[in-house]
Amino acid sequence: MSRASARQNPTRIQREKTRAILAAALDVFSAEGYRGATLDQIAEAARLSKPNLLYYFASKEDIHRVLLERLLDTWLEPLRGLDPEGDPVAEIEAYVVRKLRMARDMPRESRLFAGEVLSGATRIADQIRGPLRALVDEKAAVLRGWSEAGRIAPVDPYHLIFSIWAATQHYADFDAQVRGILGTSEGAHFPEAERYLRHLFRRAITSEATIGPDEP
């Protein structure tokens, strides 16, 4: 929580300044990484003096932590939407689409989260082992139940979720590579990516093929 948010009844200006700082920090952290980012860069991007910024946040780490906490909650929302009472194939396809559209609409947030995980996830380890793991366990149980009931093909639920994360977030974290190879403008490749990923995961969860324990 920011210093301003921690105060009782923060003013409208305080709330606006806090949002401006976080928006500026998202730009800086996603471009420079945690180590490369500085308070001076964040203050400049937010159009504030450094002392004014420090009125709202105690440190660079404080800003980064608040961003990650808010991002993780947003990042979990598509998975929360997986409905145990829905049609399994439709629910999994919808989850893939939600994650891909998040990669399209929130590339900076995706890169911020990826950078933190690649550096060891020390600042969000508790959240990963806590609420993220609990939610993944809950939805993995749903996927396993669908598989055991024959409503989708036999599949490891955790690796299915990991595969969806990898396939969709690639389009945010490696956007420059994707556009460079395809020769497309920003965002132009997403409709085709969505069609392909829908097909890919539909085949994965409706095929009768299984992977045995000793198969590569």
List keywords for this structure.
216 residues, Arc Repressor Mutant, subunit A, Tetracycline Repressor, domain 2, 11 helices, mainly alpha, 2 domains
Strand content: under 5%
Specify Rg, calculated over alpha carbons: 20 Å
CATH homolog superfamily of the largest domain: Tetracycline Repressor, domain 2
Low-confidence stretches: 209-216
CATH fold description of the largest domain? Tetracycline Repressor, domain 2
Silhouette: globular
Structural class: mainly alpha
Count of extended strands: 0
- What is the percent of helical residues? over 70%
Q: What is the domain tally?
A: 2
Written as H for each helix and E for each strand, in order along the chain, the element string is HHHHHHHHHHH
Can you summarize the main beta sheet? none
Total count of helical runs of at least 4 residues: 11
The CATH class name of the largest domain reads Mainly Alpha
CATH architecture of the largest domain: Orthogonal Bundle
Average pLDDT number:
90
Task: Walk me through this protein's architecture.
The chain is mainly α and 216 residues long. The protein folds into 2 domains: 3-58, Homeodomain-like (Arc Repressor Mutant, subunit A), CATH 1.10.10.60; 67-206, Tetracycline Repressor, domain 2 (Orthogonal Bundle). Helix content is 75%, strand content 0%. The protein has helices spanning 3-6, 12-36, 39-46, 50-56, 60-80, 88-105, 107-118, 125-148, 157-173, 175-182, 190-206. Helix 5 (60-80) packs parallel to helix 8. Residues 209-216 have low confidence and may be disordered.
